[in-house]
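chain below, 400 aa
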Amino acid sequence: MRILRVAQDIFPDKVGGAPYHIHALSRDQAEMGHDVTVLTVSNDQSLPQTEQRAGYTLVRLSPRIELFGNALFAGTVKYLRNAREYDVVHAHSHLFSSSNLTAAYSRVTDIPLAVTCHGLMSQRVPEWFSRFHLNTVGRFTYNAADVLFSYTALERERLRDLGVSSDIRVIHNGIDVDRFTPVGKTYDRITDATGPAVVFVGRLVEGKRPRDVLKAFQIVQDNIPEAKLFLCGDGPLRDKLEQIVERENMRESIRFLERVPYQEMPAVYRAADLFVLASRTEGFPRSVMESMACATPVLSTRLEQTEQVIEQAGQTVPVGDTTALAEAMSSMLDDRDALRKLGQAGREIVMREYDWSETVEQTTQALGTISTSTPFQQQVDSDQAEEQVIPAGSNTEHEQ
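prediction:
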C-alpha cells in the first residue's frame, strides 16, 4: 500500500506524543512492506527537503507564516497534486492547516482520506478560539474523512455530538511495552537525588499548566521537605518557571531536565516515584501511558478522556486546583506500598489494552479498507464484479 501521511510535526524534528506517534507508525508500516511518504513542515534550512528515514520518505516544506504554532504553507496543495500516486492519504489532527487543506483537496478530488484525531482542543491557543475552530474547520476536516481514528470511545461520542458523520474507528494510542518496562536502567540525575522524586513530562506551555505543578509542589515541601520535582521538557514558559524557582529559593528541590533524548525516557519514568500532569485539556497523552508502562503511578488533572484509566493506576484532581493537587501528591508519596500497587496496576492495564503493535496493525487494516489497491479492497471489487456478470438463474454459490 502506498501511503501519503500529512503531518505538521514529526519526531525527532519536533518532540511530543503526536510527532512520535506519526514517526513510529510510518516506520513500522514501512517495515511491514508499505511505501510510506510523510509530508511535513520545517523552517530549519539545515535539514534536507527530502530524505529517507527509518524506511520511509520524509518531505519537508517551508512555512510561509506561523500563527499560534500552526504553520501555514501553500506547498501542501501543490504537493497534493501528486496524491493520485498514492493509495491512501492519512492526515493528522484538525488543528493544523496542512490537515485542513488536505481535507479540502480530498473533497474536490475524492482521494481516499483518513484522519487521526489527536485531541479535540488545542493547548496553544485561547479556549474560545479552539472551540470555534473545532466547530467550523475541525468539523469540516473530520467530515471529509472516509475513516476517522479516535483514541477513545468518549472522544468518538464527542465527535458525533459535534456533527461528524464519518466512519469513526476507536484505536487506542498504544505504547511499546517492550521498551517501556519497570525493569532496566534509571536516569542518574533523578536517582542521584535524595528523597521521593516527582516527574513532569511535557512541553512547558500554558495548556500543560506547569505553574500549577510548581505551586502544588511548594505546598508538598512543607510536609515532605526532602522531595524533589523534575521538569522534563522545554517550551516558551521555561524562563518564567526558572524565575519562579529562583524567587522562591527552590533551586535545590526543583530541577529542569530540558529535552531528554526519547530513548532515555524509560529511564526517567523508572527513576520517578510519581508522574504528575496538570493539563487543562489533553487527547490521550502518550506520557501517561509510558509512565504506566514503567509501573510509575500517575497523578493527573481530571480530564474526561483519561480519568477512567488513570484512576485505576493513580489519582485525579480538578483542573486548576493546586491545593487538591498538593494534597494528592503528598498522600501518594507518603504511602509507598500503595504507590507500588498502583504502579503494577498501571503496567497491567497498558499491556492488556495499549500495546503499540496492535495500534499499528489496526490502523493499517483500517487504511486498507479505503485504499483501492490493497488485497482487502481488491477482493471486495472482485466480488462485486463477479456478482455483476453472473447470468440470471445461475447458481451464485462458489467455493470459499
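Residues 376-400 have pLDDT under 50 and may be disordered. DSSP finds 15 helices and 16 strands in the chain.
thats it, cya
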